[in-house]
Fold this protein.
Amino acid sequence: MSRSAEKWLAALRDLDVGKPVRIMNVCGGHERSISVAGLRSVIPEHVELVPGPGCPVCICPEEDVYEAIQLALKEDITLVAFGDMLRVPVNVPKREPRSLEQAKAAGGDIRPIASPTEAVRIAQEDPSRTVVFFAAGFETTTAPVAAMLAEGAPENLLVLLSGRLTWPAVAMLLDSGTPGFDALVAPGHVATVMGPEEWQFVVDKHDIPAAVAGFMPDSLLAAMYSVLRQIRDERHFLDNCYPQVVRAGGNPEARRQIDRVMNVVDANWRGIGIIPKSGFELREEYAAHDARKRFESYADDSRKRVGEMPPGCDCAQVVLGKIYPNQCRLYGQACTPRKPIGPCMVSDEGACRIWWSAGYRDNVWEGRREAGG
Ligand code: SF4
């Protein structure tokens, strides 16, 4: 642990808030840092760190993954997607490919990419072939997709967009009356793009302390210290504990490009349902690049468990911070990173995978309680 992190940890331990406090984070990177650095075992016992909706792969609608699989199998296209998406399972009969990885094995031209630049390169290599970019992600992933289209993508490059905004999921939790947390550590990388002001509603509307944090333990500990002190002092505000990169207003050019290319719409979150104003769709001006406009819909509402998590998987509960990953009955039993059942064990940003990788091996399903209940 760095000297700066040790300093924040000591300050945090000295702080007496006089009651138990639950702090939620909404970023897979935050959860990874917290778990890998073992912060849960060194902070005071009365402080609970709850992983929240920080994994875009985990909440990507099952229907969208199914559509991507069908496009790759039934249309003469190349489908590109971020690597995490390839193993996400959908609910289909055993004889059918249940992930993009299996669709690739079944003959689909499916390629993992790491950035929109790679999608552009693949499209440019063969202008006669249609390339569909299955773009699922939160604001930080969606912004480069918007930039790619705003700056002029190749004609043969289409986008199957599943972009989501982070803050509406937190707003939904807070509006529910049982959010399951007393303070929020807001995602620094999202704030870098969209501006920290997006999280002001947490304080103004719900009187919950909030602090924006970076990925390193010292920034996370500083944010935890900030919200705990706010609780002790009964003076709540939005603190920026990542001032090195998070500026008021975020990245104006990135936001302009998102606004130019996309509308914000009500959107479905896997296992959770529709969250108002939480998704992106391409504007009409970019219809020529919209895979949903170019190809017929492969939606099939007759599928069993359409839209749901796999049987027995509690990912939606994990994503909403209602249970910890190891409170799922399947955690470490039927479900491991080697043989994942649900998207939270597939994605690098999924809390289940992060916890397993960080060495949490106990399954505490028996006697579990819901954090928000
Ligand atoms: S352990 Fe596996 S089955 Fe359980 S919630 Fe996590 S991903 Fe789903």
Remarks:
- Residues 70 and 86 are 13 Å apart (CA to CA).
- The chain has a mean pLDDT of 95.
- The longest helix spans residues 217-233.
- The pocket of iron/sulfur cluster is lined by residues 313-315, 318, 325, 328, 330-331, 335, 341-342, 344-345, 352 (CB under 6 Å).
